[in-house]
Amino acid sequence: MTSDDTHSRTLQLLESNSYFGMEPTQVMLLKQEKVACLDDNEARLAVDPHNKYRIQTKPHGHGDVHSLLFSSGLLNVWRAAGLRWVLFFQDTNGLLFNAIPAAIGVSATRQYHVNSLTVPRKAKEAIGGITRLTHVDGRTMVINVEYNQLDPLLRATGHPDGDVNCETGYSPYPGNINQLILELGPYIEELTKTKGGIKEFVNPKYKDASKTSFKSSTRLECMMQDYPKTLPPTARVGFTVMDAWFAYAPVKNNPEDAAKVPKGNPYHSATSGEMAVYRANSLILRKAGVQIADPVPEVFNGQEVEVWSRITWKPQWGLTFSDIKKKVGGSCSISQRSTMIIKGCNVIVEDLSLDGALVIDAAKNSEVKVGGSVQNKGWTIEKVDHNDTSVAEELRIRGFRIKRIQQLETVGLPNSS
């Protein structure tokens, strides 16, 4: 889903990257409309600062995705194609696809109509919590409660300490990361009744404690994760908790804001988001039996992060841990400075000792087995100043570039059969 602010650049990104391996017909952009902005507590319409004869507008919130899916007819196309599940994801969280296969398994096993992906959450952490709310008449609802509302809600309903950690060291209310899995059939049935309408709210940002004037105009908006509020009590709504290292590393802060984050707290930047991918892949291979060297600390754009071995693979190599475990054998080790890239499905890594850079490119229907000692100068990480406008923006927000000095490339050709 896009808006006027993001549509053209999103399309440009897809086209310039050949739709990242997808066919263009597989991708449909649904553009939401904007709504009028409000200037004050009296809900006076805000005027466009560049044109006093035009009303200022902003997007209506990501809750519009439900009405757009309904009005586009796309859901019925998916059902006719035999699809069963709909995944809603935030495009800033690159790790989420690690968690999706297992979460869909949970949905299928528990027969969930709605399944929210969550991570362990510290009390009062600035992330919404998944809760079960019980009405005085006995009705219940499993729903996200925003972090700034959770503590007051608990204190008002018999929990005098509010949002506190339990014996696990975490809040009893797991953190909502806004990745939803919906069963397609019941979803279509519900939208046929509601047309995808989601309850609206306003969330003005005030200049001071008097709450008499806004920092900037506000508007009515709605949230994707409020969909369960429209469901009947018979709906099966649940959640799946995943470790954060495996499933949650959003990229939403620019370098300046990320550098202000207190040490020990997540930066949620392009720098930390990329390093989180390398960490996750390294830990997955560790669990599969590979000796992965410990990371070293480095500072990029004022952010201290752990730098693990730079390991990536195409999804076709392994969607689940069991997939990967079957393709790694013997005694394998990878040094901290190493880079390993796996492209292809049938790639077996066995008795490999890597200290450098290794690129494995296996064509479709080919089989490649990699092992032995690989040592070369490898690829290095070179720091980049985010204020240096002579450098491409995607490198500046990252805080570094990769210098490819030396590597071993292994290419698997298609089988003649």
UniProtKB/TrEMBL annotation:
Transmembrane segments: none annotated. Belongs to the USP family. The gene is LOC115698731. Keywords: Nucleotidyltransferase, Transferase. Its EC number is 2.7.7.64. One of its GO terms (molecular function) is UTP-monosaccharide-1-phosphate uridylyltransferase activity. InterPro entries: Nucleotide-diphossugar_trans (IPR029044), UDP-sugar_pyrophosphorylase (IPR039741), UDPGP_fam (IPR002618). It comes from Cannabis sativa (Hemp). GO terms for biological process: UDP-N-acetylglucosamine biosynthetic process. This is UTP-monosaccharide-1-phosphate uridylyltransferase. It is an enzyme of class 2 (transferase). It catalyses: a monosaccharide 1-phosphate + UTP + H(+) = a UDP-monosaccharide + diphosphate. Its cofactor is Mg(2+); Mn(2+).
